[in-house]
Amino acid sequence: MRTDSPQTIFRKDYTPPSYLVETVELGFDLDPARTIVANRVTMRHNPDSKNRDIVLHGEDIELVAIRMNGTELNPGQYILGATTLTIKGAPLNVVLEIETLCAPQDNTTLSGLYVSNGSFYTQCEAEGFRRITYFPDRPDVMAVYTVMLRADKEKYPVLLSNGNLVEEGTLPDGRHYAKWEDPFKKPSYLFALVAARLVCQEERYTLKSGREVLLQVWVEDGNLDKTDYAMQSLKNSIRWDEERWGLELDLDRFMIVAVGDFNMGAMENKGLNIFNTKFVLANPATATDVDYAGIEAVVGHEYFHNWTGNRVTCRDWFQLSLKEGLTVFRDQEFSADMIGTDSGRAVTRIDQVRTLRQAQYPEDAGPMAHPVRPDSFVEINNFYTVTVYEKGAEVVRMYLTLLGRDAFRKGMDLYFARHDGQAVTCDDFRQAMADASGRDLSQFERWYSQAGTPVVTATSTYDAENQVYELTLAQQCPPTPGQPTKLPFHIPVAFGLLGAQGSDLPLNADGDTTLILELMGEREVFRFEGIAEQPVPSLLRGFSAPVILEYPYTDEELVHLFRHDSDPVNRWEAGQRLAMSRLLDLTAAVQQGAGLELDYGFIAAQRALLLDDTLDAAFREQALILPSESVVADRMEVVDPRAIHTARQFMRKTIATVLRSELLNAYAANDTPGEYSPDAVSAGKRGLKNLALAYLCAAPDEHVLTLAFRQFEGATNMTDRASALVALIHTGANVDAQLEAFYQQFDGEALVIDKWFAMQAGAPNTDVARVRELMQHPSFTLKTPNRARSLLFSFCNGNPAQFHAPDGSGYEFWAEHVIKLNALNPQVAARLARSMDRWRRYDPALQVHMRTALERVAAAPKLSNDVLEVVSKALSN
Ligand code: B3K
Ligand code: ZN
């Protein structure tokens, strides 16, 4: 947290560092109240810079002493600012020795060195290293680190840092030490240490090359029964990176450490990944299928960063998507390859599309909209966004779509060959792709520089006499903050045509049935000859670009695609379009107080899909999930959260009533008796079974309630138990006894108690008063981000009908807690602050309350840059 006035930092102002660092030797005397950090850096002037001033960053630390080339500097020889230490006109070669103090136990920001449950952990990305010692804390300064840790042996028996353990031993006064050396150059944001009371699951693993490595998963005592899946996922990640990309683990030792207090998912520190417990700990009794999938994805993600992020890193933080977009793309491909089937792959793709629509499109259309490579920021931590991550991954995926698998792989190989050991830019990545494929990717650059979601409008004509089909594609992109007009994007549109029988029509003489059309202008016409019958177009197959695609489909055409499209993503998409038009009509009817009706044609299409046994359960589940309330909201001119909720509930209830027997059959047919396995087929069955139960509970009768209660009582895994409880909560039935039993059964399992809070926060009858009551529960604390998220975020983001109560009480609650969290943990506070991003889209009466709440936060004393940036962007015009 900074208290000096916020400064906007611009990408165009980048200058190379004035000094480069060769080696860093760090000594830590760890004490929760008073940790002494001794830092010895060898620096030399950077020939690429004319500047001879050394600028070190530092924040919330106390300078004890500083020596340059052996001589103590007195305060007249350096300038100590609020967040920097500058030495003017330094010699060409410099050895700096700096001693500082910090108080990890008081560090509630969870950035820098902090204490969680009595042990020490660090988080340095993006700018946490400066909270540990004075240093040029920027990613383009890469150095080799040696770390000496000293701490009480009894309290902190395990001492870990990056790289290899080279020495350890005991010290007087019950203390001990460990010395670690990381052989690879790295930026400071990848530094990590852990001093803790932990136990580990470990394994020796043989790489393809025959080299043996040590893998460890470190957790608190009592959690060793929950580390198998993380270890298995780590081994799968190592093997997959070798097989798919030819990338080998470069260290002899790779560690994962789980910690209960953590701001985000996990962190890719070199050789010492630190994880939120949520993405490590799992056994069938405590974790759901979704949790297991999350562990696989995040373990993969952090491991893959070792090449995409660590070996090749970012020149500056504007380039964040260089590592994050690419690494998300890699973890998505990993998860899809682990399932291995085409339909399983499609289900992972549908999930990605859902995330984009749910979170990224709204961001791209709101006050925080920014390009994949932002041009400016106040607080970089605010830019770890769905745009940089998920849209960034879409940008990488578009190279693959445009170049094809072989050329894309050549591009990756060239990128590593050119830039290993360097800090580079998004342009360097694009250049490697262009050079390896021989393609001109200059227009593609706009995906990095222009914010906003492009809208592609398609129209078509069919000339039966000449058998010619013409498709016209036009694009435009709405204005975003600071970018009033946009130039055309280079958009790959995967395209096919369906005949009346539902099969794909050949599009050319080669008989291709899917083509990648490249839309580069504002408007282009694509002509296909020899099309023997009036076709239905299947556009943007596989979701080939992160755009909004509009085509004047009739209901009959959508039903045809929903039944027959050979592309499963577009099959799903057709169902979503059918559902969306009904949700919007029903919402309007609710607003007008008109009678509500759902046409049988839609239900019949849903029914046919539910009964189609040739489809995987996982796919059927996806196809039957209605667009979420917030995705519907995004499609409305003026958002009415309560009307949307009523409309969607009506639709669910009607489907449940009409398809009762089919849903009951699906419920029975997809049971997964026997030992729990998180594999995709079993998880898909559970998904469909529990979706059927949730639908049935939208129109509950005795029988359905009995099924749900019985499933809750008798469940042998958390997926079934939690699904039953959530379904019951949503019926409004009295489940006090079940909630109490659940709590008692899992008291002490923090991650399960998080679920307990979250399921109540999202319940339709949970209003602000009830949330305040839950906050009084002895297990509630704002200090642990997972717990704060489980209650506050689940309510503010996941319960729109209650959060947007007409009296504004939800917004008051929001403001109060953004301010409270701001004092504890600005990063988490700023995330919560984003719940109000889209406030101008609501009806004027709600807007009045929202503005008041935003202004209250903006005027709060000691506001962090993090929160200030979010609320001032929301309030600005
Ligand atoms: N690189 C980290 C994110 C750090 C966030 C800092 N506020 C995790 C990841 O993307 O793998
Ligand atoms: Zn990442």
Automatic annotation (TrEMBL):
**Can you provide one Gene Ontology molecular function annotated for this UniProt record?**
zinc ion binding
Keyword Iron (UniProt) = no
Q: Which cofactor does it need?
A: Zn(2+)
The UniProt record lists the Peptidase M1 membrane alanine aminopeptidase domain at: 229-447
Q: Which InterPro entries match?
A: Aminopeptidase_N-like_N, Aminopeptidase_N-like_N_sf, PepN_Ig-like_sf, Peptidase_M1, Peptidase_M1_dom, Peptidase_M1_pepN, Peptidase_M1_pepN_C, Peptidase_M1_pepN_C_sf
* Catalytic activity, EC: 3.4.11.2
Chemical reaction(s) catalysed: Release of an N-terminal amino acid, Xaa-|-Yaa- from a peptide, amide or arylamide. Xaa is preferably Ala, but may be most amino acids including Pro (slow action). When a terminal hydrophobic residue is followed by a prolyl residue, the two may be released as an intact Xaa-Pro dipeptide
Please report the stretch or stretches of sequence annotated as the Peptidase M1 alanyl aminopeptidase C-terminal domain.
555-875
Q: What class of enzyme is it?
A: hydrolase
Which ranges carry the Aminopeptidase N-like N-terminal domain?
A: 26-190
What GO biological process terms does the UniProt entry carry, in alphabetical order? Answer: proteolysis
Q: Does the keyword Zinc-finger apply?
A: no
Peptidase M1 alanyl aminopeptidase Ig-like fold domain location: 452-551
Alphabetically sorted, this entry's keywords are: Aminopeptidase, Hydrolase, Metal-binding, Metalloprotease, Protease, Zinc
Superkingdom is: Bacteria
The role this protein plays is: Aminopeptidase N is involved in the degradation of intracellular peptides generated by protein breakdown during normal growth as well as in response to nutrient starvation.
Instruction: State the family named in the UniProt similarity comment for this chain.
Output: Belongs to the peptidase M1 family.
Spell out the protein name for this chain.
Answer: Aminopeptidase N
Q: Which organism is it from?
A: Pseudoduganella buxea
| Annotated gene | pepN
